Amino acid sequence: MKDRSGRGPRRDAVPAGRRVTLARALSKLGHCSRSEGEALVRAGRVSLDGRVVTNTGTWVDIETAAIAVDGVPVAESARLYLMLNKPRGLVTTRSDPEGRPTVYDCLSGLDHPHLSPVGRLDRASEGLLLFTNDTVFAQALLDPGTHVAKTYHVQIDRIADAALIDALTSGVVHDGERLAAASARMLREGGRNSWLEIVLTEGRNRQIRRMLEALDTACLRLIRVAIGDLALGDLGKGAARALTEAEVAGLRRF
Q: Residues near 49 by Cβ (< 8 Å), separated by ≥ 6?
């Protein structure tokens, strides 16, 4: 990109290597979220190489920069990876302006500095939710190009037939957007409802609920039971645990 003088790109305009904005650096180092980092910078609480900086867009090199918050040097935090069996009724946010319970209420007894959820489950949904302070890891899992499979068990208000299963995988249109599952199959059925296993490889907002709505079918329960090869297993409702090294490595394969 040339500047207005036509002399080529400005040196401070092009990030290279691990050059990121100052607020982003605080996030990548595991100190806080990017939005929290921006607030700290604007408040004049962050120094770069001994000088207070209030411009949130200042570029820094994480490898060489000396960053401090309130005079305390910021070091790269140990990487943490947790899984939670999210109960229904919790919102996936750190705090809620309406005062509703959040997923962080389940982590109150754990050491979880600056952990953020990897994606979201809406308030009515349940099951496997990941948390980490490794922003690169989180972004890779959320990137649509990685096609990480997410498996859900879904209870619907009718007995599923072949036409419904086929429509879920061939695709439906909801609010002008085409939505399709990677796979769908019947798990079991009762007198008036049935359970499906639905696998998604793209992260559209409320995708399963919207597909079912387009097919005049109500979603009674929605539980995420796996992300890639990582299964929820027998983790109790509302319980959380650290991922093993093998589990983290398994997710990194994607």
A: 65, 66
Q: At 114, which amino acid appears?
A: H
In the chain, the N- to C-terminal Cα span, in Å, equals 33
Q: What is the pLDDT of residues 12-38, one digit of tens each?
A: 333 444 688 998 888 878 788 788 889
- 5 pLDDT exceeds 90? no
| Entry pTM | 0.77
Burial call 186-204: b when 16+ CB within 10 Å, e when fewer: eeeeeeebbbbbbebeeee
Tokens of 112: 């979880």
Q: Measure Cα distances from 187 to 169, 181, 184, 197 in Å.
A: 16, 16, 9, 6
The rounded distance, in Å, linking the Cα atoms of 220 and 205 is 18
- Among candidate residues 12, 122, 161, 166, the one labeled active-site is 122
Count the Cβ atoms, other than its own, within 10 Å of residue 32. Answer: 20
49 is catalytic: no
